[in-house]
Amino acid sequence: MQYYIVFQNQAYEESRIEGRHEEISEGDMIFKYEGGAIVAVGIIGKKTYPDSTLQQLDIIEHKLQKKLRIKEVFKEIKELMNQEPSPFAIRWTQENRFHKLNEACGQFILDQIRVHNQF
Which top-level group of life is the source organism from (predicted)? Predict the structure, then answer.
């Protein structure tokens, strides 16, 4: 499983993927970030072709009952992303794009979300 984050105020379908579309697979998770917090988690349900556009992805979105405020866990995220380019550092210029997170960071965010949410 891979983890992605998208900084947006739009639907997933209006976003673009950084990198190659064929990297996205069924079961991958997408964290939706708005206004300083992760507000939803999307799970890729299926992909029709290796060159799928976002409109061809079946994304099952789970809106969070309690948002995860990134400011509250930023220190931990920064440490987990230390060895790799952090999408949080380039957020302002890369809005509406899917950014890949490393496994440790993605799992940490998911664990933090699960503390207050069920899906």
Answer: Bacteria
